[in-house]
């Protein structure tokens, strides 16, 4: 049962060959045994999950079931869930039981999906390895000495290890796509504004987007159908007509133009990664696609631009953590100012502090024009490259990450090395475009390789079609890591 | 651009994060490396380019100026470190 996808589990529930309570119990028992090995989950609450499962079974008995009714879905611990500990992977929120639901959580609850647990992540979503969590690093199920990627590493590892058929994550600079690539699963970051950020603890407000993670593209489509849509409580949520993201899955790819940016295939890509991606492109040609070389000339600036904008926005967003209304408060202090300083020194980990300090610096008097404003202008250049590229192609492809999963601890001491993990994903967030990663092979050591598919604004349905057709012709998405069977 | 210990301490004060001298040294080392990355932006000509904050050309939505929320302060304050009579309690400000 644990090899079931969201789609196949949904079908089994609809056919009444199993109940949501049975499915939920099955995944909970796997989590009980395997979570210690991979550390995917920060919080598991069997009682709450089973109560949701019983409610889902009642919904089905009343004839009101929808595709996700009764399906266990894991939630990155960045989404506020009412009555659940919501920590964002941080000591700062280690005692925060959320009094409200994020919009995305409300939508999942409304269709009767089951929250199977809150997943581990880089603290405040700042990271590419899920090593900075207050709760300890997540291990890659393909090799537990390796990182699963980040910051949605817990969600990715949980899906890869078959502890849940689907999960939700967030992506600010690659945090859905990169861990999906490093763990051999699928993940999608929608166009900016498609998924409401209400209740999604803010990191960088102009870049953050929530999105689905699962093993297959058709699973992502089912999840996106529930997650997407206008929410008046998020001022950046777009008011667009509702879409059925499954509607184009079966469309033929004949004549699809795939743009291959020369910058994505330059030096710096590990040979095994390049090989797997090139093989995937060959597969797409066999499916009737044409390829065209394109260029994204300003792409090299995307990492520096991001590491001005994202920390700047983070420094503003994380100012709310001051020990007054929620979260950690220091126990010893002389006065209010001292309380703020000690609370924040104690509550935040080193990477979070680094980013707040960078952000504060680039926004401070005398530096705003030279850094923040300049970065905003270069952002327009970077986005403009994609607009230009999409004149010549329908989708853009390349490796999601320059390497496969690196070892735990390998890059933790060098922030710049860590930041360069996101070199292919960051520009997509800067432009606000949709991007996804699907598995396309393995390296010589058995670690997964991810293929990134980037679409033009609001082209998620077409991208899911492209991925789905590839998955009908290949079986990378069916491969399972060793050691995930219960003894 | 030379980043020094004074900059780190100034910025830590602005960000209301306490930092020891030893801590500041460590942070400075990392920040210098990160600013080395950021400096790559400085060589590019940005004249004539409008800053971009958002992928779509949209304006902030307005709504009717009516009350839409209900009073949930008891619920929201149930997670606060210290509350009394509906007020958040904080230590004194000492001048």
Helices, strands, pairings?
The complex is a heterodimer of chains A (487) and B (95).
Chain A: H1 6-14, H2 20-38, E1 41-43, H3 46-61, E2 72-76, H4 103-110, E3 114-119, H5 153-160, E4 166-171, H6 177-183, E5 186-189, E6 209-214, H7 217-227, E7 257-261, H8 271-286, E8 290-294, H9 302-317, H10 336-347, H11 350-363, H12 369-389, E9 395-399, H13 415-419, H14 426-431, E10 435-442, E11 448-455, H15 460-473
Parallel strand pairs in A: 2-3, 2-4, 7-8, 7-9
Antiparallel strand pairs in A: 1-3, 4-6, 5-6, 5-10, 9-11, 10-11
Chain B: H1 5-14, H2 21-38, H3 73-77, E1 83-84, E2 87-88
Antiparallel strand pairs in B: 1-2
CATH class of one domain in chain B: Mainly Alpha
* Proportion of helical residues of chain A: 25-40%
User: What is the end-to-end distance of chain B?
Assistant: 35 Å
Strand content of chain A: 5-15%
Q: Main sheet of chain B?
A: 2 strands, antiparallel
Q: Which class of secondary structure composition applies to the elements of chain A?
A: alpha/beta
User: Kindly state the mean pLDDT of chain B as a whole number?
Assistant: 91
- State the strand order across the main sheet of chain A: 1-3-2-4-6-5-10-11-9-7-8
Helix count, DSSP H or I runs of 4 or more residues of chain B: 3
How many β strands of chain B by DSSP? 2
CATH topology description of one domain in chain A? Amidase signature (AS) enzymes
Proper CATH architecture of one domain in chain B? Orthogonal Bundle
Helix percent of chain B reads: 25-40%
Anisotropy-based shape of chain A: globular
Uncertain runs of chain A with pLDDT below 50, 5 residues or more? none
Characterize the main sheet of chain A.
11 strands, mixed
Radius of gyration of chain A in whole Å, from Cα?
A: 21 Å
Q: What is the third-level CATH name, the topology of one domain in chain B?
A: Histone, subunit A
């Amino acid at each position: 049962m644990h090899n079931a996808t969201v789609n196949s589990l949904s079908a089994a529930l609809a056919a009444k060959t199993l109940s949501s309570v049975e499915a939920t119990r099955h995944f909970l028992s796997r989590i009980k045994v395997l979570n210690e090995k991979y550390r995917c989950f920060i919080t598991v609450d069997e009682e709450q999950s089973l109560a949701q499962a019983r409610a889902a079974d009642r919904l089905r008995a009343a004839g009101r079931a929808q595709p996700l009714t009764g399906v266990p879905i894991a939630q990155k611990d960045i989404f506020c869930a009412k009555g659940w500990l919501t920590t964002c992977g941080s000591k700062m929120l280690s005692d925060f039981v959320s009094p409200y639901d994020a919009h995305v959580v409300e939508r999942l609850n409304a269709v009767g999906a089951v929250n199977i647990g809150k997943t581990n992540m880089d603290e405040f979503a700042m990271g590419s390895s899920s090593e900075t969590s207050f709760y300890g690093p997540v291990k890659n199920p393909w090799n537990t000495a390796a990182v699963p990627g980040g910051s949605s590493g817990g969600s990715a590892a949980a899906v890869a290890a078959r502890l849940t058929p689907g999960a939700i994550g967030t992506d600010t600079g690659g945090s859905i796509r990169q861990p999906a690539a490093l763990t051999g699963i699928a993940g999608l970051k929608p166009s900016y504004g498609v998924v409401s950020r209400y209740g999604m603890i803010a990191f960088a407000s102009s870049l953050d987007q929530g999105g689905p993670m699962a093993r297959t593209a058709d699973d992502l489509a089912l999840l996106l159908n529930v997650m997407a849509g206008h929410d008046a409580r998020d001022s950046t949520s777009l008011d667009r007509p509702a879409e059925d993201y499954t509607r184009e899955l079966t469309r033929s790819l004949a004549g699809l133009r795939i743009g291959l940016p020369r910058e994505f295939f330059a030096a710096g890509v590990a040979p095994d990664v390049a090989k797997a991606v090139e093989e995937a492109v060959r597969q797409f040609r066999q499916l009737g696609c044409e390829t065209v070389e394109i260029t994204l000339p300003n792409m090299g600036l995307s990492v520096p631009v991001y590491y001005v904008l994202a920390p700047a926005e983070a420094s503003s967003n994380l100012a709310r953590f001051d020990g007054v209304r929620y979260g950690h408060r220091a126990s010893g202090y002389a006065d209010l100012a001292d309380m703020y300083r000690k609370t924040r020194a104690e509550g935040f980990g080193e990477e979070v502090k680094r980013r707040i300090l960078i952000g504060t610096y680039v926004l401070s008097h005398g530096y705003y024009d030279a850094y923040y404003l300049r970065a905003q202008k270069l952002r327009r250049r970077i986005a403009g490259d994609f607009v230009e590229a999409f004149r010549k192609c329908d989708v853009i492809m390349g490796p999601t990450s320059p390497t496969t999963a690196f070892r735990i601890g390998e890059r933790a001491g060098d922030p710049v090395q860590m930041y360069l993990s996101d070199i292919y994903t960051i520009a997509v967030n800067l432009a606000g475009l949709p991007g996804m990663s699907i598995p396309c092979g393995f390296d010589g050591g058995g670690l997964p390789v991810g293929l990134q598919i980037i679409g033009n604004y609001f082209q998620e349905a077409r991208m899911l079609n492209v991925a789905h057709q590839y998955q009908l012709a290949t079986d990378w998405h069916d491969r399972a890591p060793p050691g995930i069977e219960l003894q | 651009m030379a980043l020094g210990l004074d900059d780190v301490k100034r910025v830590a004060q602005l960000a209301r994060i306490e930092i020891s001298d030893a801590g500041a040294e460590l942070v400075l080392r990392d920040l210098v490396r990160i600013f080395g990355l950021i400096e790559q932006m400085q060589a590019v000509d940005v004249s004539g380019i409008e800053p971009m904050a958002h992928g779509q050309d949209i304006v902030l939505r307005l709504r009717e100026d009516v009350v839409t929320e209900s009073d949930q302060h008891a619920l929201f304050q149930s997670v606060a470190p210290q509350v009394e009579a509906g007020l958040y309690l904080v230590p004194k400000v000492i001048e």
